[in-house]
Amino acid sequence: MYQTTKPRGDSPVSIIGAGIAGAWQALLFAQAGHAVTLHERSDAAMTDATSHWAGGMLAPWCEAETSEPVISRLGIRSLALWRDHFPKTPFNGSLVVAHPRDRADFERFARLTSGHRRLDAREVSALEPSLEGRFRDGLFYPEEGHVEPRRVLPQLHAAIAKAGGTIRFNSDADAADLDGLVIDCRGLAARDTEPTLRGVKGEMIIIETAEVELARPVRLIHPRWPLYVIPRGDGRFMLGATSIEAEDTGVSVRSALELLGAAYAVHPAFAEARIVEFGSGLRPAFPDNLPKIRIDQDRISVNGLYRHGFLLAPALAELTLAYVARGEIDNEVMQCA
């Protein structure tokens, strides 16, 4: 990091976009004593937001399989921020498993990631009794966690209000009309100023069954993509994994069949589960799939979190606050005009 000229620390702070990126910005700035107003163009339910369709996995070591080191670095820092600000966040680890036919991919995943320990069949069963006899071994990442996006985002909004921040829903704010420091966290809606952004579709299915219990996300190594099964409480599980270069918001028949088939491969009882919901969200991504904080005097853009929104948002907010407070620049993430 190095230091540069920073905006006035006593100016009001307006943040556009109350999804996971904007909410963490608002929380840290409000807790630091700034006069924060968070603008969100949708209503408080935020069913159109990308965050509404997210998995909420906090898995920096698992993500190292396909991501640049900066993702793991920022992700590990974010884990500490989640623990500090939301102590009830589940940190039960992540479990990665595979069937014998996908052994080569399983070993490749192990080589490309760290922070795990190998479990034999007995240890897998002890960790997740519902998987007894299903897998001969696994990889356990004990420091990882997960959140339920639809529960934690309202908790973030409540924490912002408690810290003295103001949230304005149904407020389609324009940065040009706002005074003081403006932090743009609009995601894909920011393509008027970030033309290289693209939408990457992530599909999900929520199912419900009383026949399976899991304490942590389980990833199944799959020839096309690793499926993850995330416990959502009350017998519900989110199935997800797709990352499709398309900007429609539907769920294809192929994706649904593959997600449901892979879930059945994790546990046959999922075949009798009730399908509760299909859905998809568009993740904002730059061409290199890395997040960026762009700084232009009193205008800051935080975008391109790709499929790592819940993992990276706390650390990115901390970096933005460090810049405003002390002029610090993180060269891997931040760009100054």
Provide the domain count: 2
Ranges where pLDDT stays below 50 over 5 or more residues in a row are: none
CATH superfamily of the largest domain: FAD/NAD(P)-binding domain
Beta-strand content bin: 25-35%
CATH topology of the largest domain: FAD/NAD(P)-binding domain
User: Which outline best applies?
Assistant: globular
Output the structural class: alpha/beta
Structure description:
By secondary structure, this protein is α/β, with parallel strands linked by helices. The protein has two domains: 2-61 and 148-188 and 288-336, FAD/NAD(P)-binding domain (3-Layer(bba) Sandwich), CATH 3.50.50.60; 94-142 and 198-285, D-Amino Acid Oxidase, Chain A, domain 2 (2-Layer Sandwich), CATH 3.30.9.10. Helices cover 28% and strands 26% of the residues. The protein contains eight helices and 19 strands. The strands form four sheets. Strands 6-7-5-12-13-14-11-15 form an eight-stranded mixed β-sheet. It has a seven-stranded mixed β-sheet with strand order 9-3-2-10-17-16-19. Strands 1-18 form a two-stranded antiparallel ribbon.
